[in-house]
Amino acid sequence: MQIGAHVRDDDPLSAARERSAETVQFFLADPQSWTKPQPHPQAAELADAGVEVYIHAPYVLNVASLNNRIRIPSRKTVTQHAAAAAETGARGLIVHGGHVRKGEDPAEGLVNWRKLFQRQQDQGGFGVPVLIENTAGGEGAMARDLDVLARLWDEVGEFGVGFCLDTCHAYAAGWDLAEAVERVRAITGRIDLVHLNNSRDEHGSQRDRHANVVGGDGTIDPELLVAVAREAKAPVIVETPQDGQGADIEFLRARLST
Description:
Elements: E1 3-6, H1 12-19, E2 23-26, H2 43-48, E3 52-56, H3 68-88, E4 93-96, H4 106-122, E5 130-133, H5 146-156, E6 162-166, H6 167-172, H7 177-188, E7 193-195, E8 198-199, E9 210-211, H8 222-232, E10 236-238, H9 245-256
Parallel strand pairs: 1-2, 1-10, 2-3, 3-4, 4-5, 5-6, 6-7, 7-10
Antiparallel strand pairs: 8-9
């Protein structure tokens, strides 16, 4: 099982070495902007070092949105980041599920996700797996509640879409983490990546505040997080405070090797 961390994008190779990470995740552009990404200059070095790479799409993207000024640039930016991720040698591009606004029909947001994959299929695909990530809160969310996630997969599952399970988001959304892997697999048939994060807030808070797996102010039992990772049998990325990432990885590697 590959274990690693979300790291700074200026020098991910050094960050991987500092943390003894086997895989890293980073951004290819400002996550709060629509800036066009470029392939990472360390792509070849990361590959030579045997470090696997995942790219996270910007937070501003909302493929589900019914607002043309958000949805249309979101589609374009997903495509751009997928192309740059492929050139970087990434194993996947992680995209949040997005949402519609209060009073809008979630079904229209679900259809917007389908249109993204339909259109790109006509262009030959994305060139890298797109992994939809569950989210912690928000009204009209596409990937917060398991029942809506099932409806989303009815729309996009045929396109070979991947899934990224975030434990902090799931816990904040009120999921039972002891059942999360089984229930997600029943819907998606797969888990391609785990964002193994503790939560600073209580179960069902709908607050997205990550804590270190161990040694921090997390409210999730670290052994429960280990159990999720073991059952998921997918690469693990910790998106936790950086000062504790090395200890998180060391703890997980020791626990998951037994």
